[in-house]
Amino acid sequence: MSPDDKTDLYVLLDDIFNKHKIPRRYRESVTKVRLKRNVLVHYGASPSDDQESLGLILKTGFPFYIYLIRYFFDLYLDWKEFAPNAKDFYELKDHPGSEKCVLIPAYGDALIQAVDLYTEFGANPLIKDKEFCCAKIAYLISGDIKEKIFTAQEAFSDVWNEEWAKFRDSRGRLMQEYFDEWAWVFDCPICRSGDSFYGEIDQHRSTKKSIRLNRGVCIECGFQIQEGNKGVLDKMLQPQLGDAMPNILKSFSFYL
Questions:
Q1: Residues 109, 202 contacting (CB under 8 angstroms)
Q2: Per-residue pLDDT tens for 141-191?
Q3: Shared-domain flag, residues 216 and 108
Q4: Residue 185, H or E segment
Q5: pTM of the predicted structure, to 2 decimals
Q6: d(CA 204, CA 212)
C-alpha cells in the first residue's frame, strides 16, 4: 500500500479476515477493540476505562497480534510455541530456526504469563482489579527506565545495601506479624527477589494435604495481591508452592 493510502482500519481488517485463514473467533473481538479505541481517542478516557481496556488488550490485543506475527511473518513472540518441548529459552541456541524467536525471553515470558493469567482469572467477577496480570511487564519496563535515569543508588551501594538489609528484616517481621504467623516466604514472581514475597496461607481453603494462598506482598518491589483473589497466588507462585508444599504442611498441619 502507498503511504498516501487512507483506507479505513475496519476495511483493512475485513480484508484480512476475508482473504486469509484467520480464526473467525477474532473477528468480533477485534471489532470491540477497534470501537473502544475510537471512543477513547475521540471522547477521552477516565480511570473507569482501565479494567475494560486491560481486558481487551490481554484477551484480544496481544493474542491477535501474536497470531498475526506468526501467520504473516513466520516469527514467534512466544518461544514456547516454537519449541514446546524446551524447558528453557537457552536450549534453543543451537536449534535450527531459533532466530525466528524475536522477543527477549524475559519480555516474552511476561507477555505470555499476562495473557495466561487473564485467560484463567479475567472472567471471574469476584476479582475486580486485574492489573496483577500485567505486573511483570510493567516491572520490566519500569526497570529499563530506571537504568537510564537513576544511578544514585549505585553510587552509595555499600551504605544502601546495609540499610536495605535492615529494612528488609524489619519488614519481614512486620509481615509475619500482620499475617499472624500464617505466612510462607517465596521468591517474588514479579521482581524475582529471593525470600521477599510473603504469602498468607488461606486457613479456610487449606487442608492437611494441600496448601492454598490468600494474599501476599513483596517487601522488595511492593507487588501485592489483595484478599479475595482466590487462586491467583497459587498460579503465580507455581512451581514454588509445589516445591515448598511438604515443608509448609509439616509446619502448619497441626493447625489445619
A1: no
A2: 888 777 666 555 555 556 667 777 888 899 999 999 999 999 999 999 999
A3: no
A4: strand 183-186
A5: 0.84
A6: 9
